[in-house]
Prior knowledge:
Elements: H1 21-32, E1 40-44, H2 51-63, E2 68-73, H3 79-89, H4 91-99, H5 122-135, E3 139-144, H6 151-165, E4 170-176, H7 178-185, E5 198-200, H8 206-217, H9 221-229, H10 235-247, H11 252-273, H12 277-287, H13 294-301, H14 305-317, E6 321-322, E7 330-331, H15 336-342
Parallel strand pairs: 1-4, 1-5, 2-3, 3-4
Antiparallel strand pairs: 6-7
Helix pairs in contact: 1-2, 3-5, 8-9, 10-11, 12-13, 12-15
Amino acid sequence: MKKNPYTLLFGKKPGQIISRLAQxxxxxxxxxxxxxxxxxxxxxGVRGSGKTVFMTEVASRLEKHDEWISIELNPxxxxxDNLIAKLNAHESVSGIIRSAKINLSFWxxxxxxxxxxQITDNETAIIRIMEGIKKHGKKLLITIDEVTNSQTMKxxxxxxxxxxxxxxxxxxxxxxxxENISRLENEKSLTFLYRAPKINIKPLDMSTMTAxxxxxxxxxxxxxxxxxxxxxGYSFAFQVMGYFxxxxxxxxxxxxxxxxxxxxxxxxxxxxxxxxxEDKRVLKAMAAVPSGQIQAxxxxxxxxxxxxxxxxxxxxxxxxIDGSERGVIRFVLPYFEDYVNDN
Length: 343
């Protein structure tokens, strides 16, 4: 029996990927430009929307070009010290460090160069390394997954602003939940992040998902389209639907019970627990109005437009609801309204 090509693991690059080229390629083109208009992009979306896979695709496309060096940092560690260690461990960068006689022994990496004093400030060390990278015609891409408003992240962001002012070829991709990125950019010393573009992850293309299911399960197109529609373009749901349909030998209707239960247990429960009581109240009212008419929802909540709009805006930004249709809001996540009703 063939191995299941779909995955239930968050963050892992799945065997079946629906590319978001329309969002990926503009970032690649900007970073690849000789005079880039941006050196930071922040990728945001609800849990399971495909932020990590999206960031990985951008990085992998850039890494195909010889001038690019890619470093992934752990947001739970001291980011600046971690960057020094990873640069020193990188095959091409370590040679640049040695030839420039940059003494990094203070951090326990590299070699203690006689006659060359230790560098004891991490920002200074990174600037020296980046100057060497620039001299050799290279560019550095730094990726950080699931950032939060931590002290080490604030220190790193402030240092990154200094690197840009030094005209260094360093680029940053960060993923994070909307609320975490919002808290970070609201720091008084990090207002430059407001100017950094934010990529809100869009739903997967329905036609491409349909073609994927049609090919892998040898289905008629109308059945494959039903499968795709049941995910509403939600990236993790695409994987979960495919995974359980594979386990049920291509019968997606038989897999629906496991599909919904898995989304409830491993995604929706976490999303729900992170919402404020007011947000939950709005979503409960939404679930009671299948048409999504805002006026009807407001009547249930007994609030006016000015009171309602901040909740609407926040839930849209979090990627939980869609407000693109005038006078209507709808759930983005598949069957999330059922979960809301059950809770």
